[in-house]
Amino acid sequence: MGTNKWNKVIKFLDTTTAKPDKVLNSLKAVYGKNKNSMYQDLRSSWPIDVVYNIYHKTGTTNKTKKIPLTQVISNWIKTTDYKTAYRTFHPGVGNSHWDLPGQEKMMKMKMYKTLTHKQHVKNCNDVWNSKSGKGFRKELENNNGQYPFTNYISKEESDALGPVSSSKLDTKRTYKKEKDHGTDISFENESAIKK
User: Of 165, 161, 118, nearest to 144 (Cα)?
Assistant: First the structure.
């Protein structure tokens, strides 16, 4: 591989404060053998959860009242939901959530950091305002506050589900044992589908 291919990259890097070991680690994460590793899965899933919870104002009691975004984020960070999510998506030393026998590989990831409340707010705000965060927000806005899981399944599976999304179903279904079919579940209130 000739150096001519890399001159543009090196020239750009010379204009930044980037450190060679950090650039190398980034390249390994993107182009390394384990592109579909647990590390990448956790790293890419965290923004989806952050945007979803900020969008739904998790932790905010009065969701109709207009309050600053940083307050919405702060309210969520104070909840046990946030603490559980942060620990789940950020394995590493100091995180008791992953410090179990058999999780040694997860503990080596070094994704967990002890941060102040203010740092958590800033990081979540950065995710919300990032390019991917804006994309996730658009998905939520276009799909009644839910991520369209049909983007992640095959066309056959989507067709089998039909035109009704899960967000349009009444979640308070009643179940009763069917005598005719011997199944444990019947949907008594199928007419409860919201129009």
Answer: 165
